[in-house]
Amino acid sequence: MKESKWKTLFEIFAISTKLGLTSFGGPIAHLGYFHEEYIRRRKWLNEKSYADLVALCHFLPGPASSQAGIGIGLMRGGILGGLCAFIGFTFPSAIALMIFALILKELHIVDAGWIHGLKIVAAVVVAHAVIGMAQKLTPDRGRKAIALGALVVTLLWQHAFSQVVVMLLAAFIGFLLYKKVEEDTQTSLQVPISTRFAASCLLLFFGLLLFLPLLKVWTSSYWIGLFDSFYRSGSLVFGGGHVVLPLLEQEFVPTGMLTEKEFLAGYGAAQAVPGPLFTFASYIGAVMNGWAGGFVATCAIFLPAILLIFGTLPFWGKLRSNSKINGALMGIQAAVVGILIAAFYDPIWISSINRPIDFAFAAILFSMLAYWKIAPWIIVLTGAIGGLFL
């Protein structure tokens, strides 16, 4: 490999690591950080290319901000550039949450008052996400109706596959309602990978989604089962890290692999670290199986995002220009809002807001976050300290 190639890869890794250590505030904030660093300061992409990339990442399942970072690394340094961008942005928060999980287990502090404060923080963050996403993704009556239907079905039919069924129905309804909606869909992305490699990534994505559950049954391997659980969760999440909450909760809490207190404590802690919220999986894996579990969980939940961004970027221009596909995606995005509201109620609300004082404290934290625009890490610290007194 030429020296200039190594220099490019090191630059991608260094910049993405800096962003992984400093990007607080969730996926929308992350995209703002990316725009400032990659587009305005370094001019690695032009504005149109970045807008097209962000649009694709919002249409794919998985963590949108992580996929955008991977896409930028891919267009800057090829496949290795995409992987360097992923590692740099992801592993600071993943390691921090694994350390938190090990401390939590070692010191048995899951019932501490500050943990209750983190649960209230989780409720505040999800409430804020619900409002923002609803305004953007359900602007008309049709999409509001799709969101309402998704909310009702998800709450009343709590099954491992309920989200999948809701997404498929929403895609069909969106196709019927919005297939004639036309948008400006010209793309200017230049992707340095072949369509053959991209197709191989998509084939691997669907192959793992199909055969991992079968392999788990055939081998009865705990580690294959663990990998399958996180891979499936990462494959079926539209809307980012907040929507992965109900999938992971249904996957691990009812089975007894993780207590509800441990689950919500980790979700609250995930708000305190920079980087993608999907690294919440790192915490869950570490709670169950230490460093090894955390590493497997991290790789498994992000692998679908990597395969999908590698697999779809070369084809995005044609997909983006198809109004029928856009209509289906509009329905899916509306369903995300309903699923998120369901997650806000169960398990977050019913497990964290137990008394009037809890609600009052949550209202203060929400105002700090939504209206006073205070940094998320300050919200988390305030929640933890307030939980000690509550």
Describe this structure in words.
By secondary structure, this protein is mainly α. It has one domain. It contains 16 helices and no strands. Helix 4 (64-107) runs antiparallel to helix 12 (280-312), helix 5 (113-137) packs across helix 16 and helix 9 (222-235) packs across helix 12 (280-312). The longest helix has 44 residues, at 64-107. The radius of gyration is 20 Å and the shape is globular. The chain starts with a helix and ends with a helix. The model has no long low-confidence stretch (mean pLDDT 83).
Layout of secondary structure:
Blueprint lengths: L2 H20 L4 H15 L5 H13 L4 H44 L5 H25 L3 H16 L5 H17 L16 H25 L2 H14 L5 H12 L7 H11 L9 H33 L3 H5 L2 H30 L3 H15 L5 H14 L1
Helix pairs in contact: 1-4, 2-4, 3-4, 4-11, 4-12, 5-11, 5-14, 5-15, 5-16, 6-7, 6-14, 7-14, 8-9, 8-12, 9-10, 9-12, 10-14, 11-12, 15-16
Subcellular location: Cell membrane
Organism: Aeribacillus composti
InterPro entries: Chr_Tranpt_l_chain, Chromate_transpt
